[in-house]
């Protein structure tokens, strides 16, 4: 990385800075500067399209983790300015890695849950880098049950490297908290929209992502393990993360092709961090469109469709012939 820009963004950023400098000097009387400005703008547009149309899976991983990428609260300030945050799991404490509460989006009452990362060291420590403890998932469960009680659609924003694997989290039942959420979401009698806005890491992501509709932003990722973790296990070498990313097929377009997700939300050219407000508008439109469609379904049909959706995932073979006898028999 170069500061808060990625390596492959650096040539584009340098060119954009030159353009900004020239804009301050351009006047109708200085025709040569105006012409140079137009030439550089055309060049920058070509460069942006060339770079972002050829991204590798590893480059998309970097974009999903971009230090400038909008987080859950950034989007809520645009699409849900009246968001009322509710805290605590009523059992142990409050986990700032997950935010949850009530809001309205285009006058539709919504219960919203999302992972939240931090922008600087202090905030990242407070938010635990978006890695939730069991109390975070139990807080989310409490809000899921509230959604069912109120009859409100549930919207979740997924952005985590994974659930926190610390000793204290395990002692407080991390795996049980995640498993409980999976069961509860499968049977929640209200529409559920899950959106992967950055990283979707393992069970920590899935614990709030069992949805009737699962969406991903164009440059987000969703996988059972991080590329670094996969490389460390398969090759005993975390530096082979780029190779692992290719094998994992963790991008939005990969997962749409594999029928793991339902839709890819396009990002502004260069990524969501280039125009957060435009990205928020696209997310809002997708939420409203899908929620309105799901609200028209009877509760039982909603549940049946959700169950069928997840049962259809994956490829497997069924043995239809006689089962062979164990070696040494018959």
Short characterization:
The chain is built from 14 helices and 8 strands.
Please outline the helices and strands.
Layout: H1 10-23, H2 31-52, H3 57-64, H4 72-79, E1 84-85, E2 98-105, E3 108-115, H5 121-127, H6 134-150, E4 154-160, H7 167-171, H8 174-186, E5 192-201, H9 202-206, E6 213-217, E7 221-223, H10 227-234, H11 241-248, H12 252-257, E8 263-265, H13 276-295, H14 299-311
Parallel strand pairs: 3-4, 4-5, 5-6, 5-7, 6-8
Antiparallel strand pairs: 1-2, 2-3
List keywords for this structure.
330 residues, 2-enoyl-CoA Hydratase, Chain A, domain 1, ligase, 14 helices, lipid biosynthesis, 2 domains, Acetyl_CoA_COase_a_su, eight-stranded mixed β-sheet, alpha/beta, Acetyl-coenzyme A carboxylase carboxyl transferase subunit alpha, 47% helix
Based on CA inertia axes, which overall geometry fits? globular
Number of strands: 8
Do you know the CATH topology of the largest domain? 2-enoyl-CoA Hydratase, Chain A, domain 1
Number of helices: 14
Reported for the largest beta sheet, the result is: 8 strands, mixed
Average pLDDT over all residues: 91
Order of helices and strands: HHHHEEEHHEHHEHEEHHHEHH
Helix content: 40-55%
Looking at CATH, the homologous superfamily of the largest domain is 2-enoyl-CoA Hydratase, Chain A, domain 1
Radius of gyration: 23 Å
Name the poorly predicted regions: none
What CATH first level of the largest domain would be assigned? Alpha Beta
Number of domains: 2
End-to-end Cα distance: 65 Å
Catalytic activity: N(6)-carboxybiotinyl-L-lysyl-[protein] + acetyl-CoA = N(6)-biotinyl-L-lysyl-[protein] + malonyl-CoA
Pathway: Lipid metabolism; malonyl-CoA biosynthesis; malonyl-CoA from acetyl-CoA: step 1/1
InterPro entries: Acetyl_CoA_COase_a_su (IPR001095), ClpP/crotonase-like_dom_sf (IPR029045), COA_CT_C (IPR011763)
Function: Component of the acetyl coenzyme A carboxylase (ACC) complex. First, biotin carboxylase catalyzes the carboxylation of biotin on its carrier protein (BCCP) and then the CO(2) group is transferred by the carboxyltransferase to acetyl-CoA to form malonyl-CoA.
